[in-house]
Design brief:
Layout: H1 5-15, E1 19-22, E2 25-28, E3 43-45, H2 48-57, E4 67-73, E5 76-81, E6 92-97, H3 111-121, H4 126-136, E7 138-148, E8 153-163, E9 173-175, E10 189-195, E11 201-205, H5 210-227, E12 232-234
Parallel strand pairs: 3-6, 4-12
Antiparallel strand pairs: 1-2, 4-5, 5-6, 7-8, 9-10, 10-11
Helix pairs in contact: 2-5
């Protein structure tokens, strides 16, 4: 049997998805997939300076009014396009993720590593000096005192942490760890300083995460200062 053009067209019509109108709404019997236009790979950066340099150079010939600078959180900022009206999506041109040191919070650590962390990963301020001074004067005591009068023997043991000059451990302390982009001032927040029976030290966050919002506000303000009023920045 010869396959005529009309026969082939009929087969294509039967096998393709059909659109049916019910109650004024269009429904498809099959799955339809929109053909997306090619998207370039997103540029990855690690500083706010890289974002600013990218926009100032404008190698990709972008228009400020068609861009959105999104401060996603305290460590991530994206430059994205305006909404694509056809596919309801956005193009992500460049994303900066802050390169941060590892900071141990909300658990105990040995005094030596705590000291190093505090000096190398926290901004110097008055409370940092107080904490360093306090932990430098800590002494782990594990002793037994024996009294013997020839008739009765008494043994008294002492185990725990003491301060050499009987100074109190300061609480709360306001510190500024390096937790966001280095181009902005690191936000300070309160911490509870605790010492356990093994002479281990820990800093426990005491602001409910409010510092994150402060960091995002500072990032937004920094970008507004560097870029001017041509760009829309949200945080």
């Amino acid at each position: 049997m010869d396959l005529t053009r009309s026969f082939l067209e009929k087969v294509e019509e039967m096998t393709g998805p059909k659109v049916i109108e019910i109650g004024g709404l269009a429904y498809s019997e099959g799955s339809l997939y929109a053909v997306q236009k090619p998207m370039p790979a997103m540029i990855k950066a690690q500083s706010l300076t890289a974002l600013i340099d990218y926009l100032n150079a404008n190698t990709d010939k972008l228009f400020p009014e068609k861009l959105l600078i999104h401060v996603v959180n305290e460590t991530t900022v994206q430059i994205i396009s305006s909404l694509n009206p056809d596919f309801k999506n956005r193009e992500n041109y460049i994303q900066a993720d802050a390169l941060l040191p590892v900071i141990t919070l909300n658990r105990f650590m040995d005094r030596e590593n705590f000291n190093i962390m505090l000096q190398s990963r926290f901004v110097p301020n008055e409370d940092r000096g107080r904490v360093l001074s306090s932990i430098a004067k800590m002494r782990f005591e594990n002793s037994v005192k024996l009294e013997d009068d020839g008739v009765t023997q008494t043994a008294t043991s002492a185990v725990g942490v003491t301060l050499v000059k009987e100074e109190q451990i300061p609480n709360p302390v306001v510190l500024a760890p390096f937790r966001t982009f280095t181009e902005i001032d690191q936000p300070e927040s309160p911490f509870i300083l605790r010492v356990n029976d093994n002479c281990e030290v820990g800093l426990f966050e005491a602001d409910g995460g409010a510092w994150r919002h402060e960091a995002m506000t500072r990032i937004k303000a920094y970008l507004e200062t560097q870029l001017g009023e041509d760009y829309t920045i949200i945080a």
